[in-house]
Design goal:
The complex is a heterodimer of chains A (486) and B (313).
Chain A (H helix, E strand, L loop, with lengths): L5 H16 L13 H7 L5 H5 L29 E7 L3 H16 L1 H5 L1 E7 L6 H12 L5 E5 L3 H5 L4 E2 L3 H10 L2 H5 L2 E2 L2 E2 L2 E2 L5 E6 H6 L4 H4 L4 H10 L2 E3 L2 E7 L6 H14 L5 E2 L6 E2 L4 H15 L10 H4 L5 E7 L1 H8 L10 E4 L1 E2 L6 E5 L2 E6 L5 H12 L5 H10 L16 H11 L4 E3 L6 H16 L5 H20 L1
Parallel strand pairs in A: 1-2, 1-3, 10-13, 16-18
Antiparallel strand pairs in A: 3-17, 4-17, 5-6, 7-17, 8-13, 8-14, 9-10, 11-12, 15-16
Chain B lengths: L1 H11 L9 H35 L2 E2 L10 E2 L3 H7 L2 H34 L4 H13 L2 H11 L6 H8 L14 H26 L3 H9 L4 H29 L3 H6 L11 H10 L4 H31 L1
Antiparallel strand pairs in B: 1-2
Helix pairs in contact in B: 2-13, 4-8, 4-10, 5-8, 8-10, 10-13, 12-13
Classes of the chains: A alpha+beta (486), B mainly alpha (313).
Chain lengths: 486, 313
């Protein structure tokens, strides 16, 4: 009988494991790409191609997947001042942005005597804040922030940022959409460059409409009663189990829920928040607000909601739901990159309407480039941001629109190329209309999101009634504002 | 004469007054130096932050202004928490989590340890299988369980459907979310507790069992009269670390439920994290930390008293 020693056994196992894992990774870092080539390579793959259905039973072998080139930072040129910029993007998005930074560092940066050191931070809901606080206290904060407006008021009120010169502020005012500028304004000062825009639209799946004997072109709901009717008609229950929800709710996502309510209340003439008062007054008790709450409760009673099928990040791209109201970014992130083939083309896009279907409008919600009040190189930071954000190139806008698929914050800028024609028209009409609001620039927004998330989840799972929801949210919002402004 | 004495003492070294001379003194000095470093580390990174946290809990501070600008408010944060329903519920959830995890992890760990120590074949394999979940990172485990618990296409419900059993909404339902998350933590740590119990069980002399067998004791009697008294010191240690760990739960809940749905799994540390970093109420979060510290301390003392007195008796 053959005797196998432990050493031989472990040795063999290690060899097998090593062979299974393939060759070791190259130890040499990839060479930096020359800026000119980097700019050429920066052209994103046509998203429409990515969304094409996969051919059935293709006889040809699948092509070997190739990784995009990794853009390591170009070396710092002598005599330049290093500025730290942190962003929350990861993976290929960070890589694409590094290309732009490389382009700057290798060309304009040498003239400006600036070298941008790009890093990323982990962004959860409170993630950036925890990081920002720690870095700000330690003096290791970035010179340039890329920050959503949700945290702007809390941080600006604590002197986190340094406003640009009036010249820059005037440029921003003249060249960027007014609502997108307002989301970055604190105490009358424009604090930074808006980098994109997030208008909110209603999406419906044309195939699900058809399957229910409806036509999205004619039956896309305007009145809230119609939302309920279409949601009910397009809900599918098979063998006692719901397999398709007529209305996709933003389950367990406080920010999305707040944006949705803000939009529907706004178009319904019942603003969710009054920012003219200190602390701001949040209103979920008005008739217009209650109508939205009751619609949710009624759709739960109809069994039309998607909460029991999971979060919208799954239900929408996986075709487990029909109607959804969502921000513009979701077209790229939910439908193109995370969805099933063909899902983008199945969408019918419409604006949000008031309960009686007569009024509509839209909103701005976006990120900004801001400069730290603790930065030792504020002027240089703004100099770099000028190159990044101003025309005629509008480099940041180009990146945001054509890499991420964001709607622009720059006036008269094109929509993402991959948007289908109907979607483009709907977006264009909606954001160019007169009735526009903004995501509130108020303190305590993250707590507001938590309050809406927790209570909305209870509402759409039928754990509370519409009246109980209203009373609890009202009480908790008052308390949150008192704490944030107290 | 006095000078001579001083010279002799100096030759003997600093530790001479403690009765340590020569090699013993050098070894002792090395020992004090090493342990001193550890105590310095503990002082700087454990005790000082604890005292600072207690001080901050008596102030109003948002962590962004310098600490010197913190406003002293006395026990205000504590009195606020005394009337804060959300905080009360988070303590209830913490206890619910801890009790369920305690029973599951320790109960299953002990059961597995008894089984594994009593099997004669493939004991190492059984031990490896039971212990392997502990090796996985908690974040990865939590994400995997979240995926497996998806009500529509997750393998848990798929299996239940195949068996014709009723399905669950697992993490998506306020009623089942806590149990679902606890299920993951039991699965992950039962093997770890098994190893700890096995160490204690294997230390029980076989002669005691042989004697009990000759005397006609059954398995339950043997366990209660021989095994239990002898593994009780180990059980005390296991029990204490389990309670401390479970009352401080954060990562698994943060990843699997984020405290939801509808706050059904919002535990103290999660609320503390959100209070500090989403609401900028850093002082209140510190007050929560102090309260949790005293709860854990009280439970630890209680366990030590109960289990030690049992042992003595």
């Amino acid at each position: 009988m053959m005797h196998l020693s432990r050493r031989a056994l472990f040795g063999s196992a290690a060899a097998i494991l090593f062979a299974a894992c393939g060759a070791p990774p190259p130890t040499q870092a990839p060479k930096p790409v020359e800026p000119a080539k980097a700019a050429e390579a920066a052209k994103p793959a046509a998203p429409a191609d990515a969304a094409k259905p996969i051919a059935k039973a293709a006889p040809t072998p699948a092509p070997t997947p190739t990784l995009p080139p990794v853009f390591t930072p170009v070396p710092q040129a002598p005599g330049t001042t290093k500025l730290l910029m942190r962003v929350h993007w990861a993976g290929s998005s960070f890589n694409e942005f590094q290309k732009i930074i490389n382009d700057y560092n290798a060309t304009q940066g040498t003239k400006d005597k600036i070298y941008i050191n790009l890093e990323r931070f982990v962004a959860g809901q409170a993630g950036p804040i925890a990081t920002f606080i720690a870095d700000f206290q330690a003096g290791t904060q970035e010179d340039i922030y890329h920050l959503g407006q949700n945290n702007l008021a809390d941080l600006a009120a604590r002197n986190f940022f340094s406003a640009p010169t009036m010249e820059v502020q005037n440029y921003i005012k003249q060249n960027f959409l007014d609502p997108a500028v307002r989301t970055g304004t604190w105490e009358g000062k424009i604090m930074g460059y808006p980098t994109e825009n997030q208008p909110h639209m209603l999406f419906g799946n044309t195939k699900m409409f058809q399957a229910a004997g409806l036509d999205a072109n004619k039956d896309m709901p305007k009145k809230w009663d119609d939302i309920r009717r279409v949601a009910k008609a397009t809900t599918k229950v098979e063998g006692g189990t719901k397999t398709q929800a007529g209305f996709i709710v933003h389950y367990q996502n406080g920010e999305r829920i707040t944006v949705q309510r803000l939009m529907f209340q706004f178009v319904n003439g019942a603003p969710l928040v009054d920012l003219s008062k200190t602390p701001p007054v949040w209103d979920v008790k008005s008739d217009g607000a209650r109508a939205w709450t009751e619609l949710m409760a009624n759709m739960y009673a109809d069994n039309s909601l998607s909460a029991d099928l999971g979060p919208d990040t799954i239900t929408w791209p996986q075709r487990k739901g029909n109607l959804i109201s969502h921000d513009a970014f979701a077209v790229w992130f939910r439908l193109v990159t995370a969805g099933q083939p063909g899902i983008l083309e199945e969408q019918f896009t419409a604006p949000l309407y008031s309960a009686d279907g007569t009024k509509t409008g839209n909103m701005a919600r976006n990120y900004h480039f801001l400069v730290s009040s603790k930065s030792k190189e504020k002027d240089l930071s703004w100099l770099h941001l000028k190159w990044m954000n101003e025309g005629p190139e509008f480099r940041m806008q180009n990146f945001q629109t054509h890499v991420f698929g964001f709607v622009a914050s720059v006036k008269n800028y094109e929509l993402p190329k991959f948007f289908p024609a109907q979607m483009k028209t709907a977006f264009q009409e909606s954001i160019s209309g007169p009735n526009q609001t903004i995501m509130p620039v108020a303190k305590g927004m993250n707590e507001v999101f938590n309050i809406f998330r927790d209570n909305h989840d209870a509402l759409v799972l039928g754990k509370v009634t519409a009246a109980e929801y209203t009373a609890k949210v009202d009480e908790e919002l008052k308390r949150a504002m008192s704490q944030a402004y107290g | 004469m006095a000078d001579e004495t001083r010279t002799i003492r100096a030759r003997r070294g600093l530790l001479a007054p403690l009765g340590l001379y020569g090699v013993a003194a050098r070894e002792a000095a090395l020992g004090y130096a090493i342990t001193g470093l550890v105590y310095l580390f503990l002082l700087g990174f454990v005790f000082a932050p604890m005292l600072l946290a207690f001080y901050v809990s008596l102030t109003r501070w948002d962590a962004l202004a310098p600490l010197s600008e913190a406003k002293f408010v006395g026990l205000q944060n504590y009195t606020d928490l005394a009337t804060d329903n959300r905080f009360h519920w988070s303590i209830v959830h913490d206890f619910e989590w801890s009790v369920k995890a305690y029973i599951g992890q320790i109960g299953l760990g002990l059961l597995l340890a008894i089984i594994v120590t009593n099997i004669t074949r493939m004991r190492a394999l059984a031990r490896f299988i039971a212990f392997s979940p502990f090796i996985l990172p908690i974040v990865a485990t939590a994400i995997i369980f979240t995926i497996m618990m998806d009500p529509t296409w997750g393998p848990f419900n798929q299996t239940l459907r195949l068996l014709g059993l009723p399905t669950s909404r697992w993490l998506l339902d306020p009623v089942s979310a806590m149990n679902s998350a606890v299920l993951m933590i039991i699965w992950k740590y039962a093997g770890y507790y098994m190893v700890l119990f096995m160490t204690a069980l294997l230390a029980v002399p076989q002669e005691y069992y042989d004697a009990a067998h000759i005397d006609g004791a059954g398995p339950i009697q043997t366990f209660l009269k021989i095994t239990w008294p002898l593994i009780r010191p180990a059980f005390l240690f296991i029990s204490v670390i389990n309670v401390i760990g479970n009352l401080q739960v954060f990562d698994s809940v943060f990843i699997m439920t984020g405290g939801g749905p509808s706050r059904a799994t919002e535990v103290v540390v999660l609320l503390m994290y959100n209070t500090a970093f989403t609401n900028f109420r850093y002082s209140v979060a510190n007050a929560m930390a102090v309260i949790l510290f005293f709860i854990i301390l009280a439970l630890t003392v209680f366990q030590m008293r109960v289990l030690k007195s049992d042992h003595a008796g």
